[in-house]
Amino acid sequence: MRALLCVLYGLAAYLAFSATLLWFIGFCGNLLVAKSVDAGGAGAAWPAALVADALLILLFGVQHSVMARRGFKQWWTRLVPEIVERSTYVVASSLVLAALMAFWQPIAAPVAWRVDGPGAALLWAGFGIGWAIVATSTFLLDHFELFGLRQAFSALLGRPEPTAEFRTPLFYRHVRHPLYLGFLVTFWSVPVMTAGHLLLSTGMSAYILVGIAFEERDLVRQFGERYHAYRRQVGMLLPRLGGAGRGRREGPSGNGLR
Which of 144, 65, 56, 138 has its CA nearest to residue 104? Predict the structure, then answer.
């Protein structure tokens, strides 16, 4: 019964995050949502909106970075069963991301750039490609482990969790963090870059760079020289000429949400 409840909790967390992520895609692209990065909200004066939005981005970054650290997880699993630790992280991420979108204050002016015609179409293509890279990267790792489902189902079926492997599937042979690269492409591939969208893109990009630094520190601790060699061979976010990775860890904290 306990394992079954963990599975139901994991499924609920997965569905909640999937819905939140779809909302975030619409939020970033001003697509099919009532309130987006550039529309809706109470219309606060830009100084107050700037402070409020910056604090929301900071909250997002702190939650993701702190809950992903090994020390926090060691403490947290004293309170939360280990098999739902990842699902709980997913729930927390969903709540924080939903709060960012719900309380975001658009700042429409000034506009950093506006692209029309074929250039706008190319940027929209980049927006879609970025999200495709994000989705594909999660499956190149272990999509269901990344979102906590594999842990819960393994417990239900009485199977041991698979051990983490070090390998380089597809994108990971060319860049160490393709999932983060996909996010960066989406954040900056917009035909109209308002002040509010520029703040979101800059803040999220800064979080990604900080998150990579923490994540790579953890990977070096786990894999030692193997990851050092991988880092020498493969670029962080851009391919390195003549470089191809020979080993990559596959697992929930190897890349992605945390």
Answer: 56
- Does the pTM surpass 0.85? The reply is yes
Q: If DSSP codes are grouped into helix, strand and coil, which group holds residue 113? A: strand
The DSSP bridge partners found for residue 165 are 250
Helix, coil or strand: residue 165: strand
Three-class secondary structure of residue 249 per DSSP: strand
HSE (CB half, 13 Å, CA atoms) of 130? 21
Q: What angle do CA 144, 148, 149 make, to 5 degrees?
A: 55
Q: What is the residue type of 191?
A: P
Dist CA 225 CA 228 (whole Å): 5
Q: What are the residues whose beta carbons fall under 8 Å from the beta carbon of 90, sequence distance 6 or more?
A: 13, 14, 16, 17, 147, 148, 257
Residues sharing a CB contact under 8 Å with residue 20, sequence separation 6 or more, in sequence order: 94, 97, 98
**Is the distance from CB of 134 to CB of 193 less than 8 angstroms?**
no
Domain boundaries, the chain: 2-250
Cα 43 to Cα 19, 51, 110, 202: the distances in Å are: 26, 14, 15, 21
pLDDT tens profile 150-187: 888 888 888 877 666 777 788 999 999 999 999 999 99
DSSP state string for 73-88: HHHHTTTS-GGGHHHH
CA 221 to chain CA mean position, Å:
22
Q: From residue 199, give the alpha-carbon distance in Å to each of 10, 49, 105, 112, 153.
A: 33, 11, 11, 11, 40
DSSP code for 252: T
Burial (CB < 10 A; 0-12, 13-18, 19+), residue 95, is middle
When pLDDT is averaged across residues 89-96 and rounded to a whole number, the result is: 96
Q: Tell me what the pLDDT averaged over the chain comes to.
A: 88
